[in-house]
Design brief:
This protein has 465 residues and is mainly alpha-helical. The chain has 20 helices and 6 strands. Helix 3 crosses helix 11 (244-269), helix 6 packs antiparallel against helix 9 and helix 16 packs across helix 20. The protein starts with a helix and ends in a 5-residue tail after the last helix. The mean pLDDT is 90.
Length: 465
């Protein structure tokens, strides 16, 4: 007997590791539980990546308004393996959100939330919600211009909740406005409270999986009856069950390792998200938008008519959560096969279609100013003669180009001004510039008479000919 084997036996004899893990690894699973069962364990692998990389990042990150931004710059560009760790933490969060979403969709389509696994579904819903929250709080810890304005937007939205909104917004900000206490609060939630909740619910979720067993793949015509299901399931496992290790676990292990490798590969090739400008409350040129997993919600809120914005903003998340929690209560028996539940396929398809459409709208976000727009090229201005050339420069310097496009250059938040010279007179242009309009600020106090004349001359030169 080797030294290591003897050491392990001595350790196991004193600690009892085999007594704990043995029943877990050997518990029987249905014989045809195959690749579509791997997404739950893959989510756990992604979470473990988050824990490992998060601990490493926390060793260097300083959660103070004076140092947070600089420490992230140090981690990204100077610390050994810092860029890899930040990249893995970012893509690990993305993988976790994506995998838990696929796992929930698979569970719903196969009716695996039905008796006796209703509590498995409910704990999964909680894990899904806290996963989204921890991902959002992680984005705010970047503490750049986008992060602090995202906090301001989140607090403003929270403040619209009737009765408790202002108090919740103040709790979110840890005061009346964002600052050092806000960052400390989000850091505490991201690093301590939410991970603790996730650990607890993962433990409960796994315990429930062991207690009720892995749901067998559904078959059309095999109806689930709560009165007979447990006896039928025990007979199935007794007759055809396979031990979890190694018959089923090898797929989970192989795919989980593949997930970690994919996260590391994306971190090496693509790197972590670039930080924006340092936070400065005096600069309003920011484009606060969430990471990709919440872009669809960002698009939804932006497209809502102002009259229903607040009700939808407050009620939509509550309704969505209620629908998810009530799924087992509405139907916990009967057919499980998606072939006999076409409405389930339609629900998942329409949900994916809605999120995908809103996601595209959120990614394009034509309603947002384009602060990255550069000056209009000289060939588009078309002349070096004054005052048109000066007006073209003022069009960029005064921020008009952030919202208006000319010949494909600039934002699309406002009307296209490529041929505005054909549509508006100098008097109409002057009135609009000085007084502003819908979503457009007034420039009366921001332009000298000479600058206004140059800007009008430039805009009048924008014609179809």
């Amino acid at each position: 007997m080797g030294v290591l084997k003897r050491a392990w036996r001595a350790f196991d004899d004193r600690i009892g590791v085999s007594d704990i893990l043995g029943p877990v690894l050997k518990h029987p699973v249905p014989p045809d539980a195959r690749w579509y069962y791997i997404f739950g364990s893959a989510t756990l692998f992604a979470f473990l990546v988050q824990v490992a990389t998060g601990i490493a990042l926390a060793l260097a990150y300083i959660p103070s308004t004076a140092n947070a931004y600089d420490t992230l710059q140090f981690i990204t560009h100077q610390a050994p393996f810092g860029r890899l760790l930040r990249g893995m933490h970012y893509f690990g969060a993305s993988a976790m959100v994506l995998l838990i979403g696929v796992h929930m969709a698979r569970t719903f389509l196969m009716g695996a939330y039905k008796f006796p696994r209703e509590a498995n579904w409910l704990t999964g819903v909680v894990l899904f919600v806290v996963t989204i929250i921890i991902a959002f709080t992680g984005q705010l810890l970047r503490w750049d211009q986008t992060a602090v304005w995202s906090i301001a937007v989140a607090a403003e939205q929270t403040g619209r909740i009737p009765l408790i909104g202002p108090a919740l917004a103040r709790f979110l900000l840890a005061g009346d406005t964002w600052g050092g206490q806000t960052l400390s609060r989000f850091f505490a939630f991201h690093v301590f409270f939410i991970p603790a909740v996730i650990f607890v619910f993962i433990g409960v979720h796994l315990w429930l999986v062991l207690r009720h067993g892995i749901s067998e793949p559904p078959r059309a015509g095999r109806v689930l009856d709560p009165r007979t299901y447990r006896a039928w399931y025990r007979a199935l496992l007794s007759r055809e069950g396979r031990p979890f290790w190694p018959d089923a676990a090898w797929r989970d292990l192989l795919f989980g390792v593949g997930v970690i490798a994919a996260i590391a590969f994306a971190a090496v090739v693509l790197g972590p998200p670039e930080l924006g400008n340092p936070p400065d409350p005096t600069i309003i040129q920011a484009d606060p938008r969430p990471d990709w997993y919440l872009l669809w919600y960002f698009g939804l809120l932006a497209l809502l008519p102002p009259a229903i914005e607040t009700p939808v903003m407050v009620l939509a998340p509550l309704v969505a959560l209620a629908v998810l929690l009530l799924v087992p209560a509405v139907s916990n028996r009967g057919e499980r096969s998606p072939a006999r539940r076409p409405w389930a396929i339609g629900f998942v398809f329409l949900t994916c279609l809605m999120i995908g459409t809103l996601w595209i709208a959120g990614a394009r976000s034509p309603w947002s100013p384009v602060f990255s727009a550069g000056p209009i090229p000289a060939r588009i201005v078309g002349t070096t003669a004054q005052p048109v050339a000066w007006g073209g420069r003022l069009f960029y310097d005064k921020g008009c180009e952030y919202c208006h496009t000319i010949a494909g250059y600039g934002g699309t938040r406002g009307p296209d001004l490529t041929t505005v010279g054909d549509r508006l007179t100098p008097e109409e242009l002057t009135w609009r510039i000085l007084n502003g309009g819908t979503n457009m600020p007034a420039f009366a106090g921001n332009l000298t008479p000479e600058q206004l004349d140059a800007l009008i001359a430039f805009l009048k030169s924008r014609t179809a000919r």
